[in-house]
Amino acid sequence: MNSPASHVDPFDLVIFGGTGDLAMRKLLPALLHRYVDGQIPEGTRVIGVAREQLDDDGYRAHAREALGERPQLDAFLKLLHYRPLDARKDDGWQAFAEMLDAEPGHVRVFYLSTSPELFEDICNRLGSHGLNRGQSRVVLEKPIGHDLASASHINDAVGRVFDESQIFRIDHYLGKETVQNLLVLRFGNALFEPLWNAGHIDHVQITVAETLGVGRRGAYYDRSGALRDMVQNHMLQLLCMVAMEPPASLSPDAVRDEKLKVLHALKPIDGRNAMQLTVRGQYRAGVVDGQKVPGYQEDLGGKPSDTETFVALKAEIGNWRWAGVPFYLRTGKRLAQRVSEIVVAFKSVPHSIFDATVPLAQNRLVLRLQPDEGVKLWLTIKHPGPGGLRLRHVPLDMSFAEAFGVQQPDAYERLLLDVVRGNPTLFMRRDEVEAAWRWADPILAAWAASGEAPRPYAAGSWGPTAAVALIERDGRTWNEDSE
Ligand code: NAP
């Protein structure tokens, strides 16, 4: 992991889908921030590609509207260019190749911010027009397939043109400051690692809760659902970061080898146990943030659907370190609060010498990914002052962003620059993506075979009551410390 301000030479970044939502809402703002920070040198070219007939000025006008008034915007917009191309047709590709060849020394990044159905066509054309030359890299956005077979198909197609070392499968959760802080907390301190095992950790919770519904992404989402959209990628990646063994170094393959071992060690959830270990839900109308909102099927325009907008599940990792430690995962749309966090709950002390009527709370390490990224360690302390030994459970704030006076960069800022530098540590390797699907596919198959519809939950709640029961059956509760 490099410092966000380390130097890069001028580069070419081609964004396929350059007029799309992701490009306008995430990629261009991230690049602008890095530019303002002085990290993107003059001479860099950011080239938007889509079918819409625009010229450079037209694209810059689109970008200006999306970015709003910002410092140094005019200078940044000069880096932007545009080429109208259809991924499925050859017209214009030769001229596009000549445009890139004008800067033979530039690192070339091809960012595929389009539907994955186009990945194969785009890569084939990049190959047949000789665009994979010099230092080229390709970035793949999620979703990489909708099951193991389709993911392998995409990986084969991309792999026919690009070497695995050139392929950057992005999972923006891995670019979050807190996730990297987890690595440093675990492996840069002597304090945690001796406790980081089944002997001392009671359980782990990973929550990715959204208050938003499916919005305009309904058609896409309805073919996907929460397990494919969130669990198979982001949440399993987070689980891997918590559970992996210490890698020998931060080299890309050392880290990814360790994550892969965790994925391989996940105990299967399939037709035999899926109904006990998983809960699927779908939101109905309700109230979120004081606003009445419609249900999922109304969001789809009245279309009946069995797609889950909520999943809770209990995973286990079958290895020495984690035997018997449940990892509870839950994610959903239209939930009570927007929060993504990892909670590592330590075992209680074996015996309390204090007032036996007051149970001692568990120590919990809470890594908050959004909103308000940060890390808190919940400790029991003595309430200061006189009045006897009154115990209090308080958070020790370990985020330090304010103390260091830094603004936390958006995950895309770091990841885009990592691609330019050619550092794939925080990107998923092919075998990781496929191992994650290998674990997720039997869950999807078990749900399909059961014929059961997802359980309804009111928008603005924490999901179906069965999700509460899933963890409470084990004598535990979902984390509620919102401090
Ligand atoms: P989007 O708004 O629908 O944009 C799609 C882009 O692809 C547009 O620029 C579109 O422009 C272009 N395009 C479509 N067909 C094309 C073709 N045949 N040749 C060349 N360009 C074509 O989609 P998005 O929301 O930006 O998402 C892009 C990808 O990122 C998807 O895979 C999505 O799942 C993933 N993703 C998105 C988000 C997000 O927040 N939006 C988050 C994570 C992942 P034209 O129609 O003019 O060609």
TrEMBL record:
Q: What are the EC numbers?
A: 1.1.1.49
List, in alphabetical order, the Gene Ontology terms for molecular function in this entry.
glucose-6-phosphate dehydrogenase activity; NADP binding
Annotated membrane-spanning segments are: none
Query: Record's GO cellular component, any one?
Result: cytosol
Residues spanning the signal sequence: none
Q: Which UniProt keywords apply?
A: Carbohydrate metabolism, Glucose metabolism, NADP, Oxidoreductase
Ranges for domain Glucose-6-phosphate dehydrogenase C-terminal come to 183-479
Active site as annotated: H234
Which residue numbers delimit the Glucose-6-phosphate dehydrogenase NAD-binding domain?
Answer: 14-181
Task: Kindly name one Pfam family recorded for this protein.
Answer: G6PD_C
Is Transferase included in the keywords of this UniProt record? no
Which GO biological process annotations does it have? Answer: glucose metabolic process; pentose-phosphate shunt, oxidative branch
Can you tell me which residues bind substrate?
A: H172, K176, E210, D229, K333
Q: Where does NADP(+) bind?
A: R51, K142
Superkingdom of the source species: Bacteria
Which pathway or pathways does this protein act in? Carbohydrate degradation; pentose phosphate pathway; D-ribulose 5-phosphate from D-glucose 6-phosphate (oxidative stage): step 1/3
Q: Which HAMAP family match?
A: G6PD
What's this chain's function?
Answer: Catalyzes the oxidation of glucose 6-phosphate to 6-phosphogluconolactone.
The entry assigns this protein to a family as follows:
Belongs to the glucose-6-phosphate dehydrogenase family.
Q: What is this protein called?
A: Glucose-6-phosphate 1-dehydrogenase
